[in-house]
Specification:
Layout: H1 8-17, E1 18-28, E2 38-48, E3 56-58, E4 62-68, E5 71-72, E6 82-84, E7 91-100, E8 109-113, E9 120-124, E10 147-154, E11 158-160, E12 167-170, E13 176-180, E14 195-197, E15 200-206, E16 209-215, H2 220-244, E17 253-259, E18 265-266, E19 271-275, H3 286-301, E20 309-311, H4 317-335, H5 341-348, H6 350-357, H7 372-375, H8 381-398, H9 400-414, E21 417-419, H10 421-432, H11 437-444, E22 451-455, E23 458-462, E24 472-480, E25 487-496, E26 500-502, E27 510-515, E28 522-524, H12 527-536, H13 543-559, H14 564-577, H15 581-598, H16 604-616, H17 625-635, H18 639-652, H19 655-667, H20 673-682, H21 688-698, H22 702-713, H23 722-731, H24 737-750, H25 758-767, H26 776-785, H27 793-812
Parallel strand pairs: 1-10, 16-17, 17-19, 20-21, 22-28
Antiparallel strand pairs: 1-2, 2-7, 3-6, 4-5, 4-7, 8-9, 10-13, 11-14, 12-13, 15-16, 18-19, 22-23, 23-26, 24-25, 24-27
Helix pairs in contact: 2-3, 2-4, 3-4, 4-8, 5-13, 5-15, 6-8, 6-13, 8-9, 9-10, 12-14, 13-14, 13-15, 14-15, 14-16, 15-16, 15-17, 16-17, 17-19, 18-19, 19-20, 19-21, 21-22, 21-23, 23-25, 24-26, 26-27
């Protein structure tokens, strides 16, 4: 079935016409225990402001029967995911019975069979307009209504929805139970949920909340291992956001459900779902724990920003995602053990926004979205990462007190309703006493990254496409480098307006522009500062300053102003003394990427070996040991490196490390099938087959590459998680470019036939772009494909962004 996409005009017409009173939705999941059938009956009560008018209801299913105000509706007219409705009364009740067998692709719903115990799990994830795939509804964000669910499920299953069940009773049919849930608050159709399966459940009562955690049975030991930490983070987040927003989460029940094969997470009201890749199979490193904490805080922030107050239309998608991302870092830094989260964000994640915003894929944070399919092309680093960076700049621009006051005003005014950007900015203007109209236009309606340099006592701003410079509130830190240490001389704040802003600074040798990382801009240091930054980064006391040096080096790679060898050497030096858990792994990751992917082929082995030498020194640092061993496994080049790795793997019986070593050996031509077989037999992870695929992906062997290719593009057998991205980078080894050239061009062909939901498609598109191995021929083909309108908009944008980076990689290899 080819589905119609809802246009902005259609949505406005329908919302002007209708007001939805409530949804009563009956769901039958019993057909999923051994089959593929999901059934639902949706009863919608709504009013019409112009009796006699007509409209349509969204239902991308097989419609069995429908009635409007007791009269049959012609279901044969259903097409494109829409059922036309006859003339409406002032008050209406629509009942639609429907079913679907499309339960294996992750389009709104996914049925998964755990390979270890054959147990079946089902989840729904309905953003942006996937609710129509599981029940009939008016599927747009501004037609909010209470939802009441009654779910029939096999008797061995648990069911979770947006609140606590009112009752669970035996069904009339054998071996099934009926779960009845109370009315939700007024919610948009995309943030309600039904999950079902034989989940393991843990409940704890804390601070007036009933906290639930769920996972599949094969991952119970992993959930139990990390439960205390996740409970602590949940309590910290609910308390912090409730107090800072002046609006405690208004529901006692708060569930977090870890489900198989979900690429990311979804902010369903009171019942967040996460891909269970967040239940790390090996005890997680500090960075992995921080990533999971960011997920927990991000999805929780959505309870306020997105669920409680929702954008009217998808052109304000950034209001949801950028705010939740910013709030996650803000909350982690202010309420959890991850107090240096802003340094981690700068060192590990902000680079992705610069890459896209400097590329031809750049777009304004806020842009016109003519239809829902266009909205999905903006689920990217500009919306999430640049968006939260811009909010961070706004906090610096108006002050945190005014920012918080504006948020409290916003939530109290608009709870359970829909808003536009102007509503939020008006709240900030009232709180700060500043006219923010020019700030809003400059930051949200213009694409591209400003480049700031310090020249002869002036901050000079270069812009994209000759735009007017944005207003920037930033700090400059000055250091004296005349002795053996970098000595701070002064740190000052400045509001930058126009192309040149004179500033007064104390005398010094090293000048860090954008110290504290308050604004979103690339920085071009003066030659002396650049040399000192790269040579003496390890002497900077503040983790944010060290993160800024690493981030600036990454920007300069994109600008073509620094050679990979210089960045690699600087990061290797920094790692020799780095002690902050917030920075060790981001620095390791960036150093590995520069030495492996950016460096020319004749320099890469030497840079990797130097990195591995430095990493050996971190193996004995407790907080860095695990991450150091993983990086060493990816860069091992000498017998000493392998000796250190083998000793560590033997001492701890570390399966994760053993798999990583097998990947590196396979890349170097030392594939041992017996080792892989033994690892597979001894690994209890239900997704252990993916570790075997990673070993095959690394091999310089056509047959091995073909098997991985089939898993991605034919069998759709790669579970959606962050490991999907790792598997892709393992496949595209830079040293195997000649072998991989035919696969690179096949990638462009596969983009036309991708299946599954947006999140899973997006992961595959990003993971399998040949960033490490593409050549000039592929780059030209990819740039041409980005103009192919038969591809989905998301794929075209990712092609533009990744091709920009690949072009800069190829250019950097010539420096």
């Amino acid at each position: 079935m080819t589905l119609s996409t809802l246009t902005k005009h259609e949505a406005k017409t329908r919302s002007d016409l209708l007001e939805v009173q409530r949804y009563d939705i009956e769901v039958d999941t019993t057909g999923l225990l051994e089959g593929e059938v999901w059934r639902s009956t949706s009863t919608i009560a709504f009013t019409c402001s112009a009796p006699g008018a007509t409209t349509f209801v969204d239902v991308a299913m097989d419609v069995v029967r429908a009635t409007l105000n007791g009269e049959d509706v012609d279901v044969s007219a259903a097409a494109g995911g829409r059922l036309p409705l006859p003339a409406l009364a002032a008050d209406n009740v629509l009942v639609v019975e429907a079913s679907t067998t499309n339960t294996a692709t992750g389009e709104g719903i996914l049925r998964t069979v755990d390979p270890t115990d054959k147990l079946v799990y089902v989840w729904t994830s309905l953003e942006p307009d996937e609710a129509r795939r599981v029940w009939a509804c008016f599927d747009q964000p501004d037609l909010k209504a209470p939802h009441r669910f009654v779910v029939t499920a096999p008797s061995s299953w648990l069911v979770t929805s947006n609140g606590a069940p009112e009752s669970v009773e035996d069904a009339e049919a054998d071996d099934a139970r009926v779960w009845t849930f109370p009315d939700t608050p007024r919610l948009s159709t995309y943030v309600v949920v039904v999950n079902a399966g034989p989940f393991h459940e843990v409940r704890q009562q804390h601070d007036g909340y009933d906290l639930g955690f769920y996972c599949r049975q094969s991952l119970v030991p992993i959930l139990e291992r990390d439960l205390d930490e996740m409970v602590t983070l949940t309590r910290q987040g609910l308390a912090f956001f409730g107090e800072r927003f002046g609006y405690p989460f208004p529901q006692e029940r708060y569930d977090q459900v870890f489900v198989p094969n979900l690429g990311g997470a979804m902010e369903n009201w009171g019942c967040v779902t996460y891909g269970d890749g967040q239940l790390f199979r090996t005890p997680p490193t500090h960075a992995q724990r921080a990533v999971r904490a960011e997920f927990i805080f991000h999805e929780m922030a959505h309870m306020w920003f997105g669920d409680l107050v929702t954008m009217q239309w998808w052109d304000d998608l950034w209001l949801n995602e950028a705010f939740a991302s910013w709030a996650a870092n803000w909350g982690m830094a202010g309420a959890s053990e991850f107090t240096e989260q802003w340094a981690t964000f700068l060192a590990a994640f902000k680079r992705t926004a610069y890459e896209m915003d400097m590329s031809p894929a750049r777009h304004p944070i806020r842009s016109d979205v003519p239809d829902v399919s266009s909205a999905m092309s903006n689920f990217d680093a500009i919306t999430y990462v640049k968006g939260q960076s811009v909010l961070h700049q706004l906090v610096a621009y108006i002050g945190e007190d005014a920012f918080v006051e504006g948020l409290r005003d916003y939530f109290s005014r608009y709870a359970f309703s829909n808003t536009r950007l102007d509503d939020l900015m008006d709240c900030y203007s009232r709180a700060s006493g500043r006219d923010l109209s020019a700030w809003t236009k400059a930051w949200l309606d213009e694409a591209g990254t400003d480049v700031i340099s310090l020249v002869d006592g002036e901050l000079v701003v270069e812009t994209t496409d000759d735009q007017e410079p944005r207003p920037h509130r930033l700090d400059v830190a000055v250091f004296d480098a005349s002795g053996d240490a970098l000595v701070p001389v002064g740190r000052s704040s400045h509001e930058v307006t126009g192309r040149r802003t004179p500033i007064d600074l104390p005398e010094g040798d090293l000048r860090l522009v954008n110290a504290g990382d308050y604004t979103f801009a690339a920085v071009k240091p003066d030659p002396t500062s650049l040399r000192l930054m790269l040579e003496r980064v390890q002497q900077l006391d503040d983790p944010l300053d060290r993160a800024l040096v690493a981030a600036t080096a990454g920007q300069l790679l994109l600008l073509g102003d620094v050679a990979p060898r210089d960045v690699s050497s600087a990061l290797t030096r920094a790692l020799s003394t780095e002690t902050s858990p917030a920075l060790v792994e981001p620095f390791l990751g960036q150093a590995l990427q520069v030495a492996d992917r950016w460096a020319p082929a004749d320099e890469s082995p030497g840079l990797l070996a130097a990195l591995a030498d430095a990493v050996v020194g971190l193996v004995d640092v407790p907080d860095a040991r695990q991450a150091a061993l993983r990086t060493l496994a990816a860069s091992a080049s000498t017998d000493e490196h392998w000796s250190v790795l083998q000793a560590a793997a033997d001492r701890a019986t570390d399966l994760d490390l053993a798999w990583r070593m097998a990947v590196r050996r396979a890349e170097l031509g030392d594939y041992d099938e017996d080792v892989v077989r033994r690892l597979l037999e001894s690994d209890p992870d239900p997704d252990a087959g993916m570790r075997r695929l990673a070993v095959l992906a690394a091999r310089p062997d056509v047959e091995a590459k073909e098997e991985v290719w089939r898993a991605f593009f034919v069998d759709y057998a790669v579970p959606a998680s962050r490991e999907t991205l790792v598997l892709g980078s393992t496949f595209w080894r830079p040293g195997q470019a000649e072998l991989l050239a035919p696969f690179a061009h096949r990638y462009l062909e596969e983009l036309h036939t991708l299946k599954g939901g947006l999140l899973n498609q997006g992961l595959t598109i990003r993971a399998m772009y040949p960033l490490g191995a593409g050549d000039e021929s592929f780059l030209a083909a990819a740039e041409a494909a980005a103009d192919d309108t038969s591809l989905i908009a998301y794929a075209r944008n990712q092609l533009r962004a990744n091709s920009f980076v690949l072009g800069r990689v190829l250019q950097a290899r010539r420096l």
